[in-house]
Amino acid sequence: MLRPPVEPMLAQAVESVPGSSVLGELAFEQKFDGYRAVLFTPTGPDGAFLLQTRRGSLIHDRFPDLVAAAYKLPDGLVLDGELVVWDAKAGRLSFEGLQCRTAARGRRGMRALAASLPAYFIAFDILQQDGNELIGYPYRQRRLRLEALFALHRLAAPWTLCPMTTDLIKAQQWLESWTEISGVEGIVVKAMNQPYRPGHRGWYKLRRRNTTEAIIGAITGTMIRPQLLLLGRRDAYGDLRAIGRTAPLRPELARLVGGNVITADAGHPWEGWRFASAWGSRDVLDATLVRPELVAEISADTAIDRGGIFRHPVRFKRLRLDVTAEDAPLFSPGPSAASSG
């Protein structure tokens, strides 16, 4: 019988759909931008509803709305899924709202947030049913059991069944059109004959990526061989706002950038700044400021916070030596910052 913590099965990022000749028949699920969570319902009279994060922390106390709706679920159940919240004022899924809810303290504050930012659990896998483990079953059978669970118990909000298709054309349509919706960031590809392997990166994820431009404001590494580029955009007042960083540069691209960047003069707008090594991290990069004159063409996914910062590293494609910093897109907070200039 499964008990927390359960290490979720993971997905590796890819650029295209893996070949079915290797994996067999494929399933495609919509990928939501939330927190990975594993849900447990009681297995006996003394049991309790539990909600576990990917890293094993229990957070059900932060979500009294889900706890209150747990009576709709049968006992002895373990579901894998994505935890999201809905921002009614903005009319969209909100990753920032989810962060607020997980950081909340005090019953009154949690209940207030539950009213304004209701939570939803989007189930995409069933790991245990009636106390019986299902992780050894192929995905095909687990999915059928999950769909039957929702139908038999007439489950509705806040319990949601993750959309799935075996039609590649439909999946591509999801990738192209659904990712325009804030909170939906791509698709996950799974083999239909695949068992559930905790901790194993046996699934594949494709995020929609947009091509756009940004100004190089700083680098890590050396001026000759930069490792990462720290990027910015000017706002309506002309101030250079940081928007994220690139993934590590390939050697040939590092040489190209190194041959063009120039060490910053005094008065750089980022003087005295500290740059986090990753979104939400407290670790600081050893960065060198450069003249904010070069424009980089980048490929970025749709995960952007309200501050207009890319939550995942972007990919550097090339230098735009044919344009100036004044030609780069202006800074814009929120999802619109990802649109191409």
From TrEMBL:
Catalytic activity of the protein: ATP + (deoxyribonucleotide)n-3'-hydroxyl + 5'-phospho-(deoxyribonucleotide)m = (deoxyribonucleotide)n+m + AMP + diphosphate
Location of the ATP-dependent DNA ligase family profile domain: 112-245
Gene3D superfamilies under this entry?
DNA ligase/mRNA capping enzyme (3.30.470.30), Nucleic acid-binding proteins (2.40.50.140)
The UniProt entry's sequence similarity note says:
Belongs to the ATP-dependent DNA ligase family.
Entries under InterPro entries matching the protein: Adenylation_LigC-like, ATP-dep_DNA_ligase, DNA_ligase_ATP-dep_cent, NA-bd_OB-fold, OBF_LigC-like
CDD domains to which the protein is assigned, alphabetical: Adenylation_DNA_ligase_LigC, OBF_DNA_ligase_LigC
* PROSITE patterns linked to this entry: DNA_LIGASE_A3
Output this protein's name. ATP-dependent DNA ligase
Q: Which residue spans traverse the membrane?
A: none
Sorted alphabetically, which keywords does the UniProt record give?
Ligase
Question: One GO MF term, please?
Answer: ligase activity
Highest taxon above the source species: Bacteria
